[in-house]
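Students often ask why inverse folding is considered easier than folding. One informal answer: many sequences map to the same fold, so there is more than one right answer. In these notes we will look at a single instance of the problem. The structure comes first.
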């Protein structure tokens, strides 16, 4: 806040609107709205996994090498996952503030705001000054607008890598700057550990690698440092995470499909694949500017930005070939590519000489992006009944007892219940009920909003019911 007041004093009030820090702060404050609400927003299944891992660090075992979820039935819940640095930081806050919703969201929001600021600095200092401001505004109002306050590692990891790339640039450009290299090493390591697709953002450094003004020795040191940073990343994802899955028997963490099946899914669901770009990433107006920008970059031979775009696209394509159906069906896999899309779209804006037209287009992109995503911030009182699930569990079971909820594999209701167990399909038959009973299920909370309750659930008797749910206790 002090920097804004100082800027106003020095340059006048109107100039503050041309200061990117004002806009980053404004978007930060906007997304504080409803920040402590329960995870009733989209991707609540993914967020509940994150919150469960953090809470289990706090309540069971704080060993960062053994993340555990709630929905592994009668198993321990330990499994292979992304490296849980985000979850671990949040779990540390629980010792001070107790378990709540706001810590996870706030952590992501703070880091994503820093990521936007450092993207601006990268563009302004090293790539293209003219596009820095509008590219950052586009990023603030892109899919990052909503996902920057979700407790998920996608924006978190990409932001860490963006900040790392800034210090990588500083090392390559500045003399006697090994401190920047150390910061780059730490941030790039944790960024890629947090989620592998964040590697797409590394494309921002490619112009430096081909910059003849940078000494070859510095480039070689930088590349060697980058290779060393990859060692813990490769160890975690290709040795330790698979080992956790094998040792503890819970196969949940997705490490990709075969290339042939991925290509088949991407082609079969080509509409879903394309929607990740033109609907989710920047909405329609932003995507239109992005397409125009690609053509203009080629025509005008803007090699720096073209290098970023081409290398980022190739890296993304490799992840698409492994992701397949998950890329086509989930919005968050496009997240690391969004900063590159905003850069290309901003290049289109930079070539417009008519100020009022430039203002209208930038405003339209921001308005459309925020309008399409603001619903994720809104209260959802119709789902408040889920907050009763923990009291229900405490009434009929002990803390160590296993329960089941009908939520189609979505673990969010188990997190609300503060129990471990199963998230079963609503069309479960007697065989499924027999299975979970034999494995130790003590209670079933049946969410009527997901499906009408079965007429009979073998081995369980109804002990409570209202318009939202029915509760069945093991006989």
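Output (designed amino acids):
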């Amino acid at each position: 806040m002090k920097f804004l007041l100082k800027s106003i004093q020095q340059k006048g009030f109107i100039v503050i609107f041309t200061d990117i820090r004002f806009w980053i702060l404004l978007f930060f404050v906007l997304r504080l709205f409803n920040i402590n609400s329960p995870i009733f927003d989209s991707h609540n299944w993914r967020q509940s996994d994150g919150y469960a891992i953090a809470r289990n660090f706090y309540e069971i075992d704080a060993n960062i090498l053994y993340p555990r979820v709630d929905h592994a039935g009668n198993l321990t819940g330990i499994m292979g996952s992304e490296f849980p640095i985000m979850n671990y930081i949040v779990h540390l806050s629980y010792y001070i503030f107790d378990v709540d919703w706001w810590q996870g969201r706030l952590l992501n929001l703070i880091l994503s705001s820093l990521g936007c600021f450092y993207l601006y600095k990268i563009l302004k200092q090293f790539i293209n000054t003219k596009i820095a401001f509008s590219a950052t505004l586009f990023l603030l109002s892109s899919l990052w607008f909503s996902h920057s306050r979700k407790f998920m590692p996608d924006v978190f990891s990409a932001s860490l890598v963006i900040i790392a790339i800034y210090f990588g640039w500083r090392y390559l450009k500045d003399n006697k700057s090994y401190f920047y290299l150390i910061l780059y090493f730490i941030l790039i390591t944790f960024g890629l550990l947090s989620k592998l697709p964040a590697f797409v953002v590394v494309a921002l450094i490619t112009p430096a690698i081909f910059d003849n003004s940078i000494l070859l020795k510095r480039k070689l040191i930088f590349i060697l440092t980058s290779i060393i940073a990859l060692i813990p990343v490769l160890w975690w994802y290709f040795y330790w995470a698979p080992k956790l899955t094998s040792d503890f028997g819970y196969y949940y963490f997705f490490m990709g499909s075969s290339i042939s099946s991925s290509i088949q899914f991407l082609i079969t669901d080509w509409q879903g694949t394309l929607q990740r770009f033109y609907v989710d990433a920047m909405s329609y107006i932003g995507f239109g500017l992005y397409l125009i920008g690609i053509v203009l970059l080629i025509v005008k031979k803007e090699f720096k930005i073209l290098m970023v775009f081409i290398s980022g696209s190739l890296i993304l394509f490799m992840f698409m070939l492994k992701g397949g159906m998950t890329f086509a069906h989930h919005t968050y896999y496009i997240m690391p590519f969004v900063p590159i899309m905003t850069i290309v779209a901003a290049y289109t804006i930079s070539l417009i000489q008519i100020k009022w037209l430039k203002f209208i287009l930038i405003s339209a992109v921001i308005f459309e992006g925020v309008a399409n995503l603001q619903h994720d911030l809104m209260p959802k009182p119709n789902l408040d009944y889920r907050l009763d699930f923990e009291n229900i569990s405490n009434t009929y079971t002990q803390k160590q007892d296993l329960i089941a909820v009908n939520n189609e594999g979505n673990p969010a209701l188990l997190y609300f219940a503060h129990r471990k167990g199963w998230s079963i399909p609503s069309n479960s038959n007697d065989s499924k009920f027999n299975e979970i009973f034999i494995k130790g299920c003590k209670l079933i909370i049946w969410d009527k909003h997901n499906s009408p309750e079965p007429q009979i659930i073998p081995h369980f008797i109804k002990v409570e019911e209202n318009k939202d749910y029915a509760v069945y206790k093991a006989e």
